[in-house]
Amino acid sequence: VKHDYPFQFVEHIGIRELHLFLNYSVKSISRNIAKSDVLKIYRREKEKVKKELELVQGRICLTYDLWSSITSDGYMSLTVHYVDQKWTLQKRIVVFHHVPLPHNSPNLSEKLINFLKEWGIDKKKFHHHSR
Question: Which of 59, 64, 104, 122 has its CA 20 to 30 A from that of 94?
Fold first, then answer.
């Protein structure tokens, strides 16, 4: 994951031989187990960040970005900004998600609201109204 290798990398003969050379008793894993392990780590880390956000006493500010890939697939990223209990400014990317067409205001608003609810921060966001 760190180097963006595909999950099948763990099944390459050279990698398996290297692992056996380093530790003869190592058990090889499949790409499905590698994927499953990565998803477990993601869920664990997501829960840590959700608990961290629950402890935020003040408001949470949001920034988001939308862009299209070369194949015109739309993506949204959502970053939360907040001050932690030690008065340190923190930021976390909480969403990087494919957003299907159409990319109009109602659809994007609905996606954004769902992401905020999923992360439990729908009631903590900071509203800025300009006149």
Answer: 104
